[in-house]
Amino acid sequence: MKIVIVGAGSIAFTPSLLSGFCIDPRYHNATLGLVDINQETLDLVATYTRRVSKEFGLGWTIQASTNRRDVLQDADVVTASIGVGGLTAWEMDVDIPYKYGIFQPVGDTSGPGGLGRALRHIPVLVGIAKDMEDLCPNAVFYNFTNPLTVLTQAVNKLTKIRCVGLCIGPDLTWSHLCRLVNVEKSQTKATIAGINHCHWITDFRINSEDGMPVVRAALDELEGNPAEMEKFRKMYEALKKRPQEPQAGSPLCDTLFRHFGAYPGPGDGHVAEFFPQYIQSTIRGLDHFQGEAIKNVKRTYPPLTQKMIEIAYNNAPIDAESFAREMYWEHTQLLDILVSEYDDLGQTFYVNIPNRGIITNLPQDVVVEVPAVVDRSGIHPFALGDLPAPIVPVLAHKTSSLDLIIEAAMSGSRKVAVQAMINDPHFTDVQVVEKCVNELIDAELAYLPNFQ
Description:
By secondary structure, the protein is α/β, with parallel strands linked by helices. The chain is built from 19 helices and 13 strands.
């Protein structure tokens, strides 16, 4: 098997992915292609990977290059976890709109931050897929790069490569509801669908019984009214006495659930960027909320980078399993998907793929986040039919602008980029849209060759 990791310098992805490979005998004697445009980072990851292979007797063949065409030949699987412009550009995505009064806790999916990131990344991912058409046309392209929906849609629309977007978000939201009512996840089932970073749990079962009233009662209890939750504890053996955990709440997600009857995710940080008009009325501590994802990266990534350096260059001990747990994140789903495919297990995962009849009241060919069974013959999405009517408008509105964003990114048209944002709920003034979008493009011009 040959797996190519484009953006191998990603601290959020590559170390834990390699740790997963090294504890699974299926990946012994695999060929790993490592691609990163930063030579220093690539050298670190390649040295780390060679040490892991030698330490555990894995027999890996390591190919590393700053030019992806050097390593894509005959790949079976290609992954992308890249960050064009790095943290510098991401901060621009968040800080420049903030000057215009726009709050973005993450700034990587919706709104002006999502636009800036999309303009930088769409041409690059399409270029990777075009190279795959030449060098490994049968490989599956697993994309982890945000904004996941529009990037995955661009690759599927503009190339012949099968591109699947992966995000751990649905699993996080499901786990959140289990913690909220204090029930073991194994005793629950969930149906989750929507688009990336704005998916919805439309059905939640506890031992086959409807769990949505229990979620509502748990929220009531957190607000000081425990009566209904006490009734459910007597009814459901699966429920235990749950201490008050106000920090577990997501006020915007909770509010939307109370009104729509479906629970959104993954958390207020992402969902708020699809409902920015409600941020100030539902979220406390906006100064902390603004740019919180970047603050978290600045806090957590340096020690993990140093840990890699110690392992790669200073012969520090390697505990692959603990490092994998430490960085438990997106990689885990990819590893499980590959196992389910090669071992014909037929397990269910949440994937981002073109709609094509999966959700009947969303446009065809837009990328949706849906459950799918994976076996030896590939990925088989569930036929979900209509989503609940109250949650469709936000999804339809967001997906309706994706092709405009793709056109702007590929053509380098400022006019189309502005058009894509005029309908975005972050903005209330067309002149502000023009100023903000053009300032973003001017600031990030070094990373936007199509706009030069």
